[in-house]
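Re-running Aminotransferase to confirm reproducibility after the cluster update. Everything else is unchanged from the original entry.
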Amino acid sequence: MFDFPRIKRLPPYVFAVVNQLKTELRRKGEDIIDLGMGNPDLPTPKHIVDKLCGAAKLSKNHRYSASRGITQLRCAISEWYKRRFDVDIDPETEAVVTIGSKEGLSHLLLASVQPGDVVLTPSPAYPIHPYGAIIAGGDVRTFNVCPCMDFFEELERAFKNSWPRPKILIINFPHNPTTAVVENLDFFRKVVDFAKENNIMVIHDFAYADLVFDDYKAPSFLQVPGAKDVGVEFFSMTKSYSMAGWRVGFCVGNKEIVGALTKIKSYLDYGMFQPIQIASIVALRGPQDCVEEIRKTYERRRDVLIKGLNQAGWKVPPPKATMFVWAEIPEQFKKMGSLEFCKFLINEAKVAVSPGIGFGEGGEGFVRFALVENEHRIRQATKGIKKALNLVPAVKKIRKVG
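Result of re-run:
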């Protein structure tokens, strides 16, 4: 009776299969350790919460707010970029606050893409990157992000094989889900050169800027001269300040692109609850030792998971950044595919992880662990995984004897 053409273009939600199985097992009383969804479990720092509570008691903050973000928050964003990356951001024309980076990125694509426009995204990718373009009516062309392949060769190949020529390039470093990182600014210089040469807009998702390990520092795309000529960068408060449910992000960079996002948002929302914006100012301007403590917590969890997987016989390299571990499926299980392997782990190891295929075809053969449980639970998870990985060889041996 009703037709939903944009919804028809979206594939089935692969992660729902694992989520459903997890729910069914928990209903039966099974203790399932959930390392699937990247939903931060750490509490928001107390001084940020206290500011929210105080601001929420003032009736003047209960009215509609500003869609593009209140002035002082945009100024705090500008100060943060200057302090962190020595990048100048005009808070009036080059910054807009978003209701999480996911909302901002998807609405920017809605403002920029019309039917038939081509958007380039890596594969695998965080789902909103390709599907935001699809929802906006565009077409997606992907290129592989893999350590064994040259990023720019893959990018160039995808660009040349696309017609019409791509309009937008979406990148994300440190990368979700693969945890790939940019080692230095030369990488972003090449991105800027590519964008200028091919008249293409760049959107950089910088959500994991602070979750970096082993003395690695993640550079900002906007640190490269000329980056603001071709693109913008999104940042989220979710990871650095453990403010997942608060839904605070921002987009900075090219004033035309920021202006387009600002305008379309003015038709769609009145901004987030003002006390949340006020508390976000305190987060950006206040003491940053909480960010370092959050970073260290994820680093310790990473170390525990990597050690446990290696002891289980699953050799996985430690990531330099993000709140994830991207693991190639052990050889003896590869034929199962990532979704069936995830179902195997949840049934036999009582551990839920995300199947790589859920992030695009380039993710097949891998699974993603999210570091969203404490160290004790992660150790428990790796013990369960070790037992599960040893199960199949034992079964084969029994069958052979029989």
